[in-house]
Amino acid sequence: MNHLATSNRDRDRRVRERQDALIATNVRWLRQALTLLGRLNDAVYASMPQGLAPHRAGSHLRHILEFYECFLEGVDSAHIDYDARRRDEAVERCRAVALARIESIIQLLEGMPSLRCDNVLWVRMEDADPGQVRDSFLMSSVSRELQTLSSHTIHHFALIAVTLLAHGVAVDPDFGVAPSTLRHRAKKAEAA
Fold this sequence. Notes:
Layout: H1 2-39, H2 42-46, H3 57-74, E1 79-80, H4 89-93, H5 95-111, E2 120-124, E3 137-141, H6 142-166, H7 179-191
Helix pairs in contact: 1-5, 1-6, 3-5, 3-6
């Protein structure tokens, strides 16, 4: 009986460590967005660079934030629908609105007890046509969705970086680069 209790405690500790790491990674990306927004003005944030229509830094950031909001709004009910985004244009046009939304998301990520467990979630298939798919929810987990949000954020950060570079705004060369790519680059630099 003692061995089983110890085993369960060890497993629970590992789950909490993993969840904490996933949350911290997502918070790190969102803090990068806060830093970047502090360097921009609303005109650059909300406008399309020539030749890159319809891409705007603000529209990519809005998209990222609304994915987080859908996740956070659905996690306690265990049902998440990323297609149910608000598509709030104020977030993509005004940095102050985006900053407030980022701060709110960070607060929820850091404070929601349900994110510390790796519970089963049901995630609606993207663009599921109810006429073709009767059961459009797929099984996932809190940790899997936190990992997906992290990857999704990094990829949209890469698009934000390209958009800002087209505006002539310098971006940290590591912004929007996957952590595994950064580790690979570091290893190559060490070996050279």
